[in-house]
Amino acid sequence: MERLERRRALIEERLVAVVDGVDPETLNEEVRHVALSGGKRVRPMVTLLACETVGGDPEDAVDFGVGIELVHNASLVIDDIIDRSDLRRGTTSAWAEFGHGPAIITSDGLLGEAFALFSADPQATQVVAEAMVELGVGEATELASQPTNEAEYMTLARRKTGALFRAAAELGAIAADSDPFAVEALGEYAERVGVAFQIRDDVLDAVADPDELGKPTGHDAALERPSVVQVTDLSPEEANARAREEADRAIDALERVDAVDREAREYLRELAEFVVEREQ
């Protein structure tokens, strides 16, 4: 765990430095409110651990990790506007704190800072651009033509959640100058982890005790959001089994990677286990 904490501190230190450099002051305040309000930093941790798994130096991957975290935060700002959600990570959401216009500008500012971090590497820029296309299609699909069956739901989960996870892992492999086979295998691993995470998140929102979960439940149903238990015939138990299948296939993909750092790969395997077992 000490190793993970060191990696998390590395990410946090660089994230603070990037945010400190944002101008003008008004935008700096808004970006700071979003980017430094907490969060598990799962995606940038995946970036660093993927880099280390294939023999790279985490210092070489930290800018990419921070960049993908900024992209993720930018998407959350827009999600909160769409969902009319007043809270994010226990604090006021960007639109509720600053208004709709400033929140949209904040999302743009986060994306701008992110792509500044990717810009030195054309492959990294392409990977993130492709992920954002998938994310945009997913958001549009959710608003315009919600899924009505399991296959359509899985496609949406891959686009809305899996795509950024995939980019996070691929960026780590790219930072380590890894071969295309490892980039693809790590990308598949992370995409499946993201889908498993989304399924489990939907189940917890539907069935968990709010006090145990640490946040209100029933959010998906109230907003008519296409949760796995809303748009499929799967019971919560069956949905959890689907999440388990995705996690198992993620681990299979991870095992295809010729690991230089087996401890880093083990942390990635543990993440795949955690996302389907978590209660929060």
UniProtKB/TrEMBL annotation:
Q: Which InterPro entries match?
A: Isoprenoid_synthase_dom_sf (IPR008949), Polyprenyl_synt (IPR000092), Polyprenyl_synt_CS (IPR033749)
Keyword Metal-binding in record: yes
Top-rank taxon of the source lineage equals: Archaea
Q: Where are the transmembrane segments?
A: none
**Keywords in UniProt for this one?**
Isoprene biosynthesis, Magnesium, Metal-binding, Transferase
Task: Name its co-factor(s).
Answer: Mg(2+)
Q: Name one GO biological process term.
A: isoprenoid biosynthetic process
Family, per entry: Belongs to the FPP/GGPP synthase family.
Protein name as it appears in the record: Geranylgeranyl pyrophosphate synthase
Q: Which organism is it from?
A: Natronococcus occultus SP4
Source lineage:
Archaea, Methanobacteriati, Methanobacteriota, Stenosarchaea group, Halobacteria
